[in-house]
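Workshop exercise sheet. Pairs work together: one partner reads the sequence aloud, the other fills in the structure field after running the prediction. Swap roles for the next sheet.
Pair: D.N. / O.F.
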Amino acid sequence: MTRGAECIGSEETILQAAQKMTELGVGSLPICGTDNRLKGVVTDRDIVVEVLGAGKDPSSMKAGELAQGEVVTIGADDSADEILHTMAEHKVRRLPVIDGHDLVGMVAQADVARALSDATVGDLLEALSTD
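Structure field:
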């Protein structure tokens, strides 16, 4: 897990999210509401496909507009097996880590690859790559 994940506010623009990703050297940011609760996750791919590719203006579109449905998260004390299961089941490569209602970090596919056996990582990659 990468601790201390920084949020982009749901009222901040997609352009601000892209700039923050660039500054932090990350490919995703949790989206937090004005109540400081997790609302979603925006990825660099979301910005390209759902904003730029769709002809929308990243300087006027709000990050919260990309928050869809219930956020898939894991708990701070969840096991590696639970992380793998959650990633595979929801076909996500990044998971916000929460402790209660507080965002405490992010787990990415790369974190899993560094921590687990090649066979286990291969199973995850296969699950994420199939429809």
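Discussion prompt: The CA atoms of residues 12 and 84 lie 31 Å apart. What would you look at next?
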